[in-house]
Every structure is written in structure tokens, then in C-alpha cells.
Amino acid sequence: MWDNPAEAQKMMGKLKELKEDVSLWDEIHREYDDLCLLNELAVSEKDENLSGEVEENLKKLKKDIEKMELESWFTGKFDHHDSIVSIHSGAGGIESQDWAEMLLRMYLRWAERKDFKTEINDIQVDEEAGIKNVTFTVRGRNAYGFLRAEKGVHRLVRISPFDASSRRHTSFSSVDVIPFIDEDIEIVIDVKDLRIETYRASGAGGQHVNVTDSAVRITHIPTSTVAQCQSERSQFQNKDTAMKILRARLFVKEQERKREELTKLRGEKREIAWGSQIRSYILHPYSLAKDHRTGVEKGNVQAVLNGDLDDFIVAYHRQRVAEKKG
């Protein structure tokens, strides 16, 4: 173990996760035992204050149990990995670009609530407003497991702040989510199949931005798969990050190709992702965020746009697991 620091680091990370699982399990048992004793006391003493305390502790216990239940659903090979998220604005120019920026803010706020670390790898900002597309990494336990519930088209209905006539507009942006693949995943990439370009970073950043050609774009020519990064200070670092993103995208593309072949053999029809939104966020004429896969609705859209996504994510995975069992 000590002769292989990289392997040792992975093992220590896994050990930490197992300790967290055991610790949460022990905590739930203690909370349950304490709650039973407190409830017995509240009933015997007919104490309303104690009864209120029982209710509060019960809410916390339910929340901890739901957390453990949710994480038990992350049994996919890459669910525990970090996640690479890409947001692309749809047709509609500035309206969709502004919506894409709102989605970016929503996911960054959600990650902050989870104590996950985020890093914007590449962003194409429009001169007028909003963003054309952005790729960012979310690092944290089960980040991919959580965020794969968000893959699909997101629809916004609102009174446009860019329309002088204050008309209602509908905007679309797509969210793509792939796992951050470890180095030990076998992805054979021939250097001859790569086109590597450098350019000056265009997004917000430190003094290095727009000074040198530090940003890197890598294209895998046979599949036309592109990955780019401009967030790091050096061209070498950007190239390394772009290669990791490219490896992850190629791996996912190969997995999808295999699934498509299996689907053809089974004679099933695949759903066209762009043509069917997974969630709508309506700000006018009423306030409602609705997930079209699970039917979950939340009236406080502003809270959702501020990162309150857990109800949608939990419902998606609950339905996924139920369908798998069925």
C-alpha cells in the first residue's frame, strides 16, 4: 500500500466513506432510542413541551433515515463518482442564454448546500447577456448519483426582462451529466486521433485570462467529441483537465452505443431527449416548478432556482428504484 500512494489515497477515501456510513447508522440508532425514551416521558408526564421536542426530534430522525435510504439507491458503477455537468442554451438567443445562466446558478447553489466543491471548466459568455454553454465539475460523495437525475431539457416560462412589451416567453436549455471517470477506466485514445488547439480564455478569471493562449480545446476526430478547459492558470493544466473530460465523454458515448445496439435487438424505441423536457419552471402567470417524470410540484420556484432541488432528485431516484424492482 505504501509503495503505491495513488492506490493508498483511493483506499483511504473508500475507508472514509464506510466510516461515514457506519457513523450515520449508529447515530440513527441513538436518535431512535433517545426518542423512544423521550416519548415515554412526554406521555407519562403529559408534558406539551416534551411532546413538541419529540416532534422536532422525529423530523430530524426521518431526515437522517431518508438520507441513508437515498444513498442506498446509488448502486450504479459510477454513482459515487464526481460529476461533469454541461449546460447548453437552446434556440431563442438571449432568452435561452439567460436561462442557461440561471440554471448554472441553481446548480452551484445546490452544490453549496451539499458542501460539494465546484469548478467551472469552460464557459462561453454572450456579450449581451447570459451564457451559450458551460461545463463544470461537481466534486463530492455520490455527486454523479445525485445529478444524473437532472439530465434532460429544462423549460422556463416567464415575462421576459428583455422584451420591452413585457410579453411571456418560453425558453429551453439542456443539461448533460456524465461521471468524472478515474484514470483506471480503460479508454484507448490514439494521439493521432486528437486535434489540440489553444486559444485565449474568454470568461471571467484572474490576470492570466486574455494574456496568453492558455485555454485548450481537444477534439477526438473519429467521434467529433470535443472537450475544452480555460479555468486553470497554465496551458498544461487546462490540457490535463480537458483530457479527463474527453475521456469521460468518450466512455459515456461508448456505453450509449452499446445500449443502442441492445435497444435495436429488443425492438424498442428510444426517447428523443431534446424534444421532451424533464421539468418546467413557470414564473408567469403563476408560480410552479413541475417535474414531468415524477409529477412532483413545488410552488416556490424562487427557492428551486436557489438550489432547493432535493425533492425532485429524491422522487426521481425513488421512482427509478421502484421501476427497477417492478
Descriptive account of the structure:
This protein has 326 residues and is of the alpha+beta class. The chain folds into 2 domains: 5-72; 79-326, Alpha-Beta Plaits, CATH 3.30.70. 44% of the residues lie in helices and 23% in strands. The protein contains 7 helices and 11 strands. The strands form 2 sheets. An 8-stranded mixed beta sheet has the order 2-3-1-5-4-9-10-11, with helices on both faces. It has a 3-stranded antiparallel beta sheet with strand order 6-7-8. Strand 7 and strand 8 (225-229) form a beta hairpin. Helix 1 packs antiparallel against helix 2 (48-72). The radius of gyration is 23 Å and the shape is globular. 26% of the residues are buried. Mean pLDDT is 85; it is low at 204-210 and 268-273.
Shape: globular
Strand content: 15-25%
- Annotated CATH architecture of the largest domain: 2-Layer Sandwich
* Structural class by secondary-structure content: alpha+beta
Give the count of helical stretches. Answer: 7
Give the helix proportion (percent range).
40-55%
User: Helix and strand string, N-terminal first?
Assistant: HHEHEEHEEEEEHEEEHH
Reported for the largest beta sheet, the result is: 8 strands, mixed
Cα-based radius of gyration, to the nearest Å: 23 Å
N- and C-termini, Cα separation:
43 Å
CATH fold naming of the largest domain: Alpha-Beta Plaits
List its traits:
7 helices, 23% strand, alpha+beta, Alpha-Beta Plaits, 3-stranded antiparallel beta sheet, single chain, globular, 8-stranded mixed beta sheet, 326 residues
